[in-house]
Amino acid sequence: MKITKVVTPDTPPARRTADRSVTTSSGHLIRYYLRDAQEGIRRNAGAALATILLIFISLTITGAMVLLKTGVDDVIGFLNDQVKIKVFVDRQADTEQVAEILAGASFVRHVKIETREDALAKLQGLFRDMPHLFESFRDSRFPDAILIELEDQSQVETVARELAATRGITDVFYAQEFAAQVLRWSQLISTYGAIVLLIFLLASVLTVGIAMNLSLYQRQKDIRVKLLLGARESHVRGQFLLEGVIIGFIGSLLAAFAVYLIYYYALYQLQLRFSAVFDFSALSLNLTLLGVILFGMLIGLIGTYLSTRKMMKHG
Amino acid sequence: MIQMKHVEKSYRGIPVLKDVSFSVDPGELVFLKGSSGSGKSTLLKILYRDIEDYGGEVRLNGQALRSLPRYESRRITATIFQSFELLDRKTVYENVALAGEVIGRSEREIRQETMSLLERVGLAGKEDRFPHELSGGEQQRVAIARALLNKPLVLLADEPTGNLDPDNAGMILELLRQFNETDGITMLIVTHAEELTRKFEARTLYVRGGRVEA
């Protein structure tokens, strides 16, 4: 192949020094690396998709757990705020007399007797669609109960303990007792959930790392050529970090959408029905979604950072 | 432009370069010859910063090579290779433009200069071809255009004609000579092509047993 034309500037035949000014700008550089990062993800689409999926699963679980915990906290908070204690009275005792004694106590604001008939009426309402179940209760011998409203919510547990030791009272029920149970279960779920979550998050970081290692392997020559052409090591590495962050962002954006759906179809519906119990603000929701997205980007960044640590040494 | 003073390099205790000292003036074209394994490529690798652990001192454009960040010295010295080092999935235009893109030059400037350089190396009209659609000589011309896009002061050529037939090899050396003359680019060319280099009025250095002789 012949060189058809070599254009030489209009210069004297003696050696000269050409104009060597080269203008560079970080704006052009950022645009280039953004373009190249997109191309990198496209070239490594399979691994990128697997990573996005895993990040999506991990962060959806994380977000759902945050919502669950918020809901449970609301329930616990609601139960703890209750100032009522229900006591069942011994059948041998005179319910009205017991109620009168209790009403005289300083910590009691109000007492109300709930007779067997009242209890049956409540059950009838509860089982109105299942009358056969209600029939099975009709012949039961319910003890009378007394509902005690206290002056101070903080005294509930102390008062309940004292009532339990009082003659004539067989059982004591109070909301804080359920709150403690709910809290125990919630802590148990949180612990095991956190372990599962940690495994998922580690797997996500590892998958990002593997995807990036694959990408690095595929693009060894590109990296070498870029560095030989005068690219900064930090920029070349930055491109891979950018790819990791983009992958993390896509996965977490999908997860944020899924978390929003979980909120809308679960927590929000509960909030509509039991507005006194659930109090999840729009700000909390937005912060949760933002947290999910930032966390996803962080996973992408950490995974890529770990996989590119040694890369520049081979540049 | 290039100064090497008492440069030494060993691989696992075996000396490859021994007390190498020479200099290349600005705008000069110098051939570097020697048998296989004599240390020519090692010498070039030191200059394009593929090897950093060596003894002695190397100065580039008046500055100690070690004191320059690697990317900066690689913008002063461009390198071409026997294997061309083109990216297969990029077109001729994209391969050349890459040099400007990675250092942040504007698209307009890159386009202008890439087209101009492709014309100068005789590849006008082949911008959209892929490397595998070109002959070896054409691929090396793409590599030359890419190396010169960012207007380096020095061009290092590691066996640029090693994979070419004598006709193409001659054309590549002629092309390099033209760039040296018209643009004043300092060139250090490692080559085996004894016959082809005879017609050039250029200094030749010989690497023998790890030492450089005039």
How would you portray this structure in words?
- The complex is a heterodimer of chains A (315) and B (214).
- Chain A is built from ten helices and four strands.
- Chain A has helices at 26-43, 45-80, 95-103, 116-126, 131-138, 156-164, 175-218, 220-228, 233-273, 282-307; strands at residues 84-89, 108-114, 145-150, 169-174.
- A four-stranded antiparallel beta sheet of chain A has the order 2-3-1-4.
- The two termini of chain A are 34 Å apart.
- Mean pLDDT of chain A is 80; it is low at 1-17.
- Chain B contains seven helices and ten strands.
- The two termini of chain B are 17 Å apart.
- Chain B has a six-stranded mixed beta sheet, sandwiched between helices. Chain B has a four-stranded antiparallel beta sheet with strand order 2-1-4-5, with helices on one face.
- With 214 residues, chain B is an alpha/beta fold.
- The longest helix of chain B is centred in the C-terminal third of the chain and has 18 residues, at 166-183.
- Chain B has a single domain (2-213), classed as 3-Layer(aba) Sandwich (Rossmann fold), CATH 3.40.50.
- At the A-B interface, helix 1, helix 8 and helix 9 of A face helix 2, helix 3, helix 4, helix 5 and helix 6 of B.
